[in-house]
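quick q for whoever's on today - can somebody do inverse folding on this one?? i tried earlier but teh output was garbage lol. tokens:
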């Protein structure tokens, strides 16, 4: 199998963390790629026509994407370690979707400042993305403490990667303000070997 990935993508990081946590890292070759929506570079368009990463090429040549599909596939391959059985599964999937939503909004904010010409940037739209992130963080702070303190699952992995990405690209926003429980959880989660081995570097 081949994973098309960039060290700075939080969605690819989710997959890398899963591979490490489930003991499958040696089963996947990592192909580093880079690009943006306006300059695709060497993004794996043949493996994901949407031009997004990660994409996973299977041994039979078939490709699957996006990160949630890849994570479900690889976890099933490992015996279902990070996606529990229902009804707990629905909470895990909801947490993963919330974390991915945080990342979607954060990446749009980053693209606005890094790709769009300065005279065409729309500040209200940027702030609307941050408002999505803030609402998600507020909900996680208030209602997810028991889940976050429970057994490791893919929702936790996704959230750890999302919060780390906020530090990586949007540190000036200070997401920890008003979210002390979430901040304490992230500090502890960030010490996992799989998270330390995948810290993004500019």
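ok took a stab at it. sequence:
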């Amino acid at each position: 199998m081949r994973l098309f990935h960039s060290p700075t993508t939080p969605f690819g990081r989710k997959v890398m963390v899963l591979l490490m946590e489930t003991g499958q890292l040696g089963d996947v070759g990592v192909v580093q790629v880079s690009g943006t929506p306006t300059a695709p570079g060497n993004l794996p368009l043949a493996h994901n026509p949407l031009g997004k990463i990660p994409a996973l090429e299977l041994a039979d040549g078939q490709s699957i994407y996006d990160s949630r599909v890849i994570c479900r596939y690889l976890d099933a391959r490992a015996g279902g370690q990070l996606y529990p059985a229902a009804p707990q599964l629905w909470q895990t999937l909801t947490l993963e979707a919330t974390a991915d939503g945080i990342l979607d909004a954060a990446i749009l904010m980053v693209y606005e400042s890094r790709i769009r010409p300065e005279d065409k940037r729309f500040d209200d739209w940027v702030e609307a993305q941050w408002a999505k992130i803030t609402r998600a963080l507020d909900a996680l702070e208030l209602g997810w403490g028991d889940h976050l303190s429970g057994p490791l699952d893919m929702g936790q992995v996704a959230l750890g990667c999302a919060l780390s990405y906020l530090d990586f690209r949007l540190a000036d926003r200070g997401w920890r303000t008003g979210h002390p429980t979430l901040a304490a959880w992230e500090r502890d989660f960030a010490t996992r070997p799989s998270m330390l081995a995948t810290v993004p570097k500019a």
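fwiw The chain has two domains: 2-77, 88-194. also The chain has a mean pLDDT of 96. so keep that in mind when u check it
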